[in-house]
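input
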Amino acid sequence: MRLWSLWWGLALQLRPAFGRTRTFLWFAAGLAAACVRPDLAGVTSYVRALGLRRACYGPLLDMFHSPGVGLDKLTRLWTRAALSALRPALLTAGGRPVLLADGIKIPKAGRKMPAVKKLHQESDGNTKPEYIFGHSCQAVALAVRAGLGFFALPLACRIHEGAVFSNRDRRTLLDRMAALALSLGVEEPAVLVADAYFAAAKVIGPLLRAGWHLIAAVRSNAVAYRAPQPPKPGTRGRRRTYGEKVALKRLFDDQSAFTEAQSPVYGESGVALRFLALDLYWRPVGIIVRFVLVAHPARGRKILLCTDLSLAALEIIRLYGIRFKIEVSFKRDRTYKLRFPAGAGYGKVG
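output
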């Protein structure tokens, strides 16, 4: 009963998102059933889990489509409750909470289901088909310490491809991800950790304007620029914005410039890796960012990007190593029956 009392205290914080008390109580019943149900047969499993009468099936089903549920407000309240309740256990970077972001594509058998479309999977793994019919979602989770490890606590997940509400909406998946992260109602600057797909100006720009920072991988063909040399006296014309062009992948050829250190990656001990940190201009955003080149003895090579120049290289490597926890959460979510290849969170530079 002590556990359920704590559960009810958290659930009550979500009450303002519902227009009527009756709608909230049906939501609370469904939430409790989702916590204890032994099978995954949809709303039917909710009825069986709580021992409800057959007549409760209809109201439970209607609750999911009720106009009395404010989804955006519910998401903000859940984020606020999670940050408040788990404050001592949060993974932080420079005193800021760390959020994890990723996109998932969920195969669906029903071709006529809303928002189901033909999707191309860009994964490097050969365990996935190249094209599927399903839902394309993007999710944001909160990195939380759990015992001796970490856990990705889901905050929000939205179908961002296939659902069209207005023909005037020209936002891309990158625009939608940035908007989703900033719509959570986090009242303090945070650090978003994502994979190489989200290392783009459409994500970095909105985050920086809100005081957030991004840690992400970059593709193997990424280039950066050194700071321009000061112009010679008497030189006419506009001052150069960028200096010498640097192909980041080429920097791995000179291992003498790398520093060796014990790996800060989660779950590793007694492993030495080599890294190189450089502050260079990145043309997509036009500002100086920190690039960290990592040569791991077992996992291969990786190029990381961080918009926060105050974070040390090893701290950036450690935080990016936590990113795969959101993929583990997807894999454990049996409701969607996802399957991700092993090692998907830390690949090799091609």
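quick obs: Residues 1-69 form one domain.
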